[in-house]
Design brief:
The protein is α+β, with helices and mostly antiparallel strands. The chain is about 20% helix and about 30% strand. The chain folds into 2 domains: about 140 residues, Immunoglobulin-like (Sandwich), CATH 2.60.40.290; about 250 residues, Rossmann fold, CATH 3.40.50. Helix 2 crosses helix 7. It starts with 7 loop residues before the first helix and ends with a strand. Keywords: Carbohydrate metabolism, Glycosidase, Hydrolase, Polysaccharide degradation, Signal.
């Protein structure tokens, strides 16, 4: 078996590891009459680290065939390897057989596009490399080739092209049922949304844990697009037993737990209306630190840091090493050089190892996205990012990642990595 050249991204993620390349031909075709297609892919499998009884690996898949709207990569371990944790996708394992499937945000693979995922596993010996991979049930062929198929079933679906940002639901702002620590902003008629609602737990600037009036306008925009937003602070700004001024990330994970209870509470307007597989954290300034730490919770699938970032000296008790604990895609937003968080935001993006986007609007400063003239643009960017990651929406993905999207809207600048 040949040893391939590992690209720079894989090298960073699996430094000092071993890498083996195989090629897989695959696509999942839908329809009753025979149809022609081109299938093929490249798989780079790299063991990045080993320790007694275990190892970590990274897998990079390059699609050489027709566009895929969902991928499913399968292989058989040659030894006793057993996966204990995976990221940027989900996995199932039965005996030595493993199938990894896409996350909500990385299932769309155009021709020539790549996707990466990783895992940790136990092993009683030095880990061996699987000899064969299959993509969407088609065995590896070694090249991109035309195929004919009459497949009539598939386990994937095409994401809707209508983005959430096009919604404009009436919004209700109310105190969280049974918990005066939180304020909830939601579509007034959840049933009118037409499907389950994703959840966003939000931390306020200055780590304000009582009064959230500063963010009401911004969070109302997000809720009007079909989100349930749970924000720290009582609905009328009255005392709720919380101190302000320092990060308390557990408040955001408590907000998620509140949503889980509300999902099952009889009589709740949100009962069985939430999609608890689509949960995100976000926060402004000091609240962004809360969001970045809370995003380490396994219930979270995306994180947004607004005018924020961990300090180099570990101020507020959280060093930049916290970034290594992220497991979800991240959006880092700042308002340019006049934003006091400008340097931190840039440094946090640079240090992040997850798929990340850095978006900058130099006219926004530190509060423009929250209470200034850039609220609309800022919240549109947040909604589009969350729609891309949580729902796999193609239109939102193009807006965030394509040069013709946000990056073309002066004076915005956009950088991305690992997507």
């Amino acid at each position: 078996m040949s040893v391939p050249r590992i690209d720079s991204r894989t090298r960073r993620m699996a430094a000092a590891g071993i890498a083996v390349s195989v090629v897989a031909g695959a696509t999942a075709l839908i329809g009753s009459p025979p149809a022609s297609a081109t299938a093929g892919c490249r798989v780079d499998y790299a063991v990045g680290s080993e320790w007694p009884g275990g190892f970590g690996a990274t897998v990079v898949v390059t699609n050489l065939g027709d566009r895929l709207t969902g991928w499913r990569l399968s292989w058989t371990f040659p030894g006793d390897e057993r996966i204990t944790q995976s990221w940027n996708g989900t996995h199932t394992q039965s005996g030595a057989g493993v199938t990894a499937t896409n996350a909500a945000w990385n299932g769309d693979l155009a021709t020539g596009a790549t996707v990466s995922f990783g895992f940790n596993a136990t092993s009683g010996a030095s880990p061996a490399t699987p000899s064969t991979f299959t993509l969407n049930d088609v065995v590896c062929t070694g090249s991109a080739t035309p195929t004919t198929t009459t497949t009539t079933t598939t386990t994937t679906s095409t994401p809707a092209d209508r983005p959430m940002v096009d919604n404009n639901f009436a919004v209700t702002r109310e105190g969280a049922y049974g918990d005066i620590r939180f304020t909830v902003l939601r579509p007034s008629n959840p049933q009118a949304v037409g499907g389950p609602l994703p959840v966003l737990a939000f931390g306020n600037g200055a780590c304000a844990h009582t009064n959230n009036s500063e963010v009401t306008r911004a969070l109302t925009i997000i809720a009007s697009k079909g989100f349930v937003v749970v924000d720290i602070g009582s609905v009328n700004g009255s005392a709720n037993g919380l101190p302000s001024g320092s990060p308390i990330p557990s408040l955001l994970t408590d907000a998620i737990s509140w949503a889980e209870r509300e999902q099952n509470r009889s009589g709740s307007p949100l009962s069985q209306r939430l999609d608890l597989t689509k949960v995100a954290t976000a926060g402004h300034s000091c609240g962004g630190l809360e969001a970045l730490v809370a995003a380490q919770d396994r219930r979270v699938s995306a994180v947004v840091s607004l005018n924020s970032g961990f300090f180099a000296d570990g101020s507020f008790g959280y060093p930049r090493s916290e970034l290594a604990k992220l497991h979800t895609p991240a959006l880092f937003l700042d308002g340019g050089s006049s934003d006091v968080a400008y340097a931190n935001n840039q440094a946090n993006y640079d240090q992040a190892t997850v798929p990340a986007v850095l978006a900058r609007q130099p006219q926004a400063g530190h509060v423009g996205f929250i209470s200034g003239n850039q609220v609309g643009d800022g919240m549109t960017t947040v909604v589009q990012f969350l729609d891309m990651v949580l729902n796999g929406n193609r239109t939102a993905r193009s807006y965030i990642l394509d040069p013709s999207g946000l990056a073309s809207r002066s004076p915005w600048t956009v950088a991305k990595k690992n997507f």
